[in-house]
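Consider this record:
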Amino acid sequence: MSGRTPSQTVGPFFAIAFSRERQCDVVPGGSVQIVGHVFDGDGPVHDAIVELWQQGEHGTLWGRCGTGPDGSFELVTERPPDGVADVQVFARGLLRHLVTRLYFPGVSDEVLDAVEAERRETLVAREEDGALRFDIHLQGDRETVFFAV
């Protein structure tokens, strides 16, 4: 049996591989706060990493946030020109990261239109208390739509 590698298990390598400095500001001083929780079938995932990638005025922007004890995360950004951001989720038990999309309210495109109507809401952030809420469900009845890339 060969030894474990980071590509085979999140295992003991997961927490070591990520920087502990604040990386939650996609756009430092941005006016849009994206808040949410990561859930699996048993409840909040307290040790996931959520990455957000989006287009900005001068190219691609990126931010990363670890989840708190209640599975919560928070990212600060600006609305991208196309109203769409790519989201990647890393968590224990995932052999590969998951990829989804976050659509700002009022935005649609051919990708969102191709998703089953009853599941589209899992990709659209909703306004709540001055922020955009985007919860990520790894499984269950409200499972977020993930894309094979």
